[in-house]
Write a structure and sequence with these properties.
With 170 residues, this protein is an alpha+beta fold. The protein is built from 5 helices and 5 strands. It has a 5-stranded mixed beta sheet, covered by helices on one side. Bound molecules: FE2/S2 (inorganic) cluster (2 copies).
Length: 170
């Protein structure tokens, strides 16, 4: 079973297929950005991207990502540790308090901005409505996503060497 995890190809034994994906990432791969919170697919704290689509992985198994591309929050920053502009916008706008929801929020916003780099604030609110935040009141999160959208509108100027908005374009 092959899985591309944050740009790296992994070959996993079939026997690992039934392992819960959230535990595989957090315990086996030491990628602890995705949080295990409600455990029933309701809160969004465990969200990652699978083939560029947000997925709540507390209800998924490793076999669900066989042959697919997986992006976790750890894969958003550049290899030298430079934050992705979307991560930086969350910091700039104070869109983080406890941080529990933040990895899922950032990844959902990333998937959304890849498709819609020029969103209205209402569209941003709708995009994140499956991800609960108990701290920020959402205003700053919407501000951050709106700020970062400028980077997705100007991919030619995009300064980040890692995940680029047009990376998946043919
Ligand atoms: S922990 Fe997966 S949706 Fe809440
Ligand atoms: S920052 Fe605490 S849950 Fe969102």
């Amino acid at each position: 079973m092959r899985v591309n995890l944050n740009g790296r190809d992994l070959e996993l034994p079939e026997s690992m297929g039934e392992r819960r994906l959230i535990l595989f990432l957090r315990e086996d791969m030491d990628l602890t950005g995705a949080k295990n919170a409600c455990d029933i697919g309701a809160c969004g704290a465990c969200t990652i991207l699978i083939d560029d689509e947000p997925a709540k992985i507390c209800i998924k198994r490793v076999k669900d990502v066989a042959g697919k591309r997986v992006l976790t929050i750890e894969g958003m920053a550049a290899p030298d540790g430079t934050l992705h502009p979307l991560q930086q916008a969350f910091l700039d706008r104070g869109a983080i308090q406890c941080g529990f929801c933040t990895p899922g929020m950032v990844l959902v916003a990333h998937a959304f901005l890849l498709k819609n780099p020029n969103p209205t604030r209402l569209q941003i609110r709708k995009a994140i409505n499956g991800n609960l935040c108990r701290c920020t009141g959402y205003q700053q999160i919407v501000d951050a996503i709106e700020q970062a959208s400028t980077h997705y509108r100007r991919p030619a100027d995009y300064p980040h060497p890692g995940i680029q908005p047009l990376a998946k374009a043919p």
